[in-house]
Amino acid sequence: MNKKRSRLEIIRDILEVIKSRNGRIKPTHILYKSNLSYNMMEEYLEELIKKEFIVVKEEQKNKTYAVTEKGIEYLNKYKLIAEFTESFGLS
Amino acid sequence: MTYFYLVPKWFLKFSIGIEIFFAVIALAVALFAIKIYSISRQREIRLFGVSFFLISFSYLISTLINLAVISPTIIRLAQLTTSNIARLGVVGIFSYTLLFISGLITLAYTTLRIKSGKVYYIILSLGLIIMITPLIIVTFLYGPIEFRSLYTILLTFRILSVFLLIFILYNYVEEYVRKKNKKTLLVVVAFFFLLTSNTEFIFSLAYYEAYIIGHILEFIAYLFILLSLILTIRK
Q1: DSSP B31-52
Q2: Which residue from A13, B45, B164, B166 lies 20 to 30 Å from B172 (Cα-Cα)?
Q3: Mean pLDDT of B116-136
Q4: Cα separations (Å) of A76 from A12, A16, A17, A65?
Q5: Which residue of B has its CA nearest to A88?
Q6: Residue ranges of domains in chain A, CATH in brackets
Q7: What is the pLDDT, as a whole number, of residue A1?
Q8: For the range A56-60, what are the long-range contacts, defined as Cβ-Cβ under 8 Å and sequence gap of 24 or more?
Q9: Which 3 state secondary structure label does DSSP give A21?
Q10: How many Cβ pairs within 8 Å bridge chains A and B?
Q11: What's the mean pLDDT when you consider all of chain A?
Q12: Which residues of B touch A73 (CB under 8 A)?
């Protein structure tokens, strides 16, 4: 059985999914790829928008998401963040 | 913190140096946490950084006051009388204890993983009330803040520190059992030494040897924290 993902891992997974689609992905795809419930996904997306890790674009009634510079930086430094939080019991 | 006549003179300067070391380590952890927070925007990382900032400032205040109190030049320049020195010592120790306790409370709250800010302020207020109340009682009974108040402040402070450190250590042990991360084990050992040093400090009110042992144990604790930080940065 897979171990439960930490909050940081879930954020990384969502950002990876959005980034893998060249920064343009629909919520349904995120839901499918990130392996979260709809409510959880909405909660995380809201948090990521608030933290300016992603931006939402609305085109012809369609919502798409794109990763920002801050989101990219998070992905690049993810290993360091994970190391720190695990060492000091913050994960 | 120096307890004036309870501390042997040969250890006084050494203890100041050692507290600068604690302040630097705590500040390094705080700055690194803030750096990680600026990337991750995780609330608990920010709180962790704040807790180490508070702990670092507590040691800095302790060092500054100790330096002022023992330095003949400063005493002469500031024209400090004996009672002024005693008052300065009490104010310094009180500031140190409030900052250190605030740091431990912030750290304990971080380990709880509660999102409510209200809970944090309630716990912090309770901790500070516990610290201030005995001082008010002593001042009310014996007059203005003076040397006698030191023991009340320090005893309350050490007991509260030990209580908070037991809680923090328990959380780190749980975290280690769950994740089996070697660097978390280093932090567990560090907090174990911090707990034993603070327990030892309770006895330093009666025996100065306990004050020296407490400092050595605290020094070991910060070495472990430093080691954990270095291993994290190096990866």
Answers
A1: HHHHHHHHHH--HHHHHHHHHH
A2: A13
A3: 91
A4: 10, 11, 14, 19
A5: B184
A6: 7-87 (1.10.10.10)
A7: 42
A8: A57/A24
A9: coil
A10: 65
A11: 86
A12: 39
Residue type, A91: S
How far is Cα B155 from Cα B205, in angstroms, rounded to an integer?
8
The interface predicted TM-score of the complex, written ipTM, equals 0.83
Please state, in angstroms and as integers, the Cα–Cα distance from residue B79 to each residue in B65, B73, B93, B229, following that order.
Answer: 15, 10, 21, 43
Integer Cα distance of B52 and B75 in angstroms: 31
B225-234 tens-digit pLDDT: 999 999 998 8
A8 interface with B at CB cutoff 8 Å: yes
For A23: left if phi > 0, alpha if psi spans -120 to 50, otherwise beta; the answer is: left
The answer to whether the CB atoms of B184 and A83 lie below 8 A apart is no
Confidence of residue B90 (pLDDT cuts 50, 70, 90): confident
A6 touches chain B (CB under 8 A): no
Residue pair B106/B76 in contact by the 8 Å Cβ criterion: no
Stretch B156-165: mean pLDDT, rounded? 95
Domains of chain B: 4-234 (1.20.1070)
A89 touches chain B (CB under 8 A): yes
Range A43-77 burial, b when 16+ CB lie within 10 A, else e: ebbeebeebebbeeeeeeeeebbbbbebbeebbeb
Quick one: which H or E segment has residue B19?
helix B9-40
**pLDDT at A22 (0 to 100):** 67
Q: From CA B146, how far away is CA B71, in angstroms rounded?
A: 20
Which residue's structure tokens are 């144990």? Answer: B217
Contact B232, A83 (CB under 8 A): yes
Cβ-proximal residues to B210 (8 Å cutoff; 6+ apart), any chain? B200, B201, B202, B203, B204
